[in-house]
C-alpha cells in the first residue's frame, strides 16, 4: 500500500477520527470527483428516452454499441440487466440506486418541465413532487424527488448559495 502502518487508535475513538485526538490535520482525501456511475436497467431504450427527454442528458455510444448518458463532466454508463459488462457490481439490480443530481435551474421551473413531460406520456416523469430543504455535500440545498423507469430514486437539487461564485442564489 501507500502508507506504513498507522499509529494505534485511542480506545473508544473511531479510526476515522483519530487525527482529532492526535491534534493533527485530517487525512487528505484521495478522491476528487465522480467520473461515471453504472446504472443497471431493465431497458436501455426506456432509460435513454427518459434521461434524454426528461433531464436533457446527452446520449453517447461508445465501444461498439454501449450507451451512456453524459451530463456536465460526468456520465451514467448503462448496463442492461442480465447483459452486464465486466467488471460489475456483485449484485447488479435495476431500481437499486438513489442519487442526487445538481441543477442551476430554479426547481419550480424543473417541476413545470417534469409535469409537461408527464402530460406527453414520458414514463414515470413525476408523481408528486415537493421541494424540500436539505443538506448537500457543499451546503444547503433544495431538492425534488421522482423515479425513473426502473424505480431508481432521482433527486435533483439546487444549492441555496452559489458555492462557486460565493454569491446568494435563489433556492
Automatic annotation (TrEMBL):
PROSITE patterns: VOC
Domain of life (superkingdom): Eukaryota
Residue ranges of domain VOC in the record: 33-159
CDD domains assigned: GLOD5
Family that this chain belongs to: Belongs to the glyoxalase I family.
PANTHER family: GLYOXALASE DOMAIN-CONTAINING PROTEIN 5, GLYOXALASE FAMILY PROTEIN
Annotated protein name in UniProt: Glyoxalase domain-containing protein 5
Native organism: Taeniopygia guttata (Zebra finch)
Amino acid at each position: 500500500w501507500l502508507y506504513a502502518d498507522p499509529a494505534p487508535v485511542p480506545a473508544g475513538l473511531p479510526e476515522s477520527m483519530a487525527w482529532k485526538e492526535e491534534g493533527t490535520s485530517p487525512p487528505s482525501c484521495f478522491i476528487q470527483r465522480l467520473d461515471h456511475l453504472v446504472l443497471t436497467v431493465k431497458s436501455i431504450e426506456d432509460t435513454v428516452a427518459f434521461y434524454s427527454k426528461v433531464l436533457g442528458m446527452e446520449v453517447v455510444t461508445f465501444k461498439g454499441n454501449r450507451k451512456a448518458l453524459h451530463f456536465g463532466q460526468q456520465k451514467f454508463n448503462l448496463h442492461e440487466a442480465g447483459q452486464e459488462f465486466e467488471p460489475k457490481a456483485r449484485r447488479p439490480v435495476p431500481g437499486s440506486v438513489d442519487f442526487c443530481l445538481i441543477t442551476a435551474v430554479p426547481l419550480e421551473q424543473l417541476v413545470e418541465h417534469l409535469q409537461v413531460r408527464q402530460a406527453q406520456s414520458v414514463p414515470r416523469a413525476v408523481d408528486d413532487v415537493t421541494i424540500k430543504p436539505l443538506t448537500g455535500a457543499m451546503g444547503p440545498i433544495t431538492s425534488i424527488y421522482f423515479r425513473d423507469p426502473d424505480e431508481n430514486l432521482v433527486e435533483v437539487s439546487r444549492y441555496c448559495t452559489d458555492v462557486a461564485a460565493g454569491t446568494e442564489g435563489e433556492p
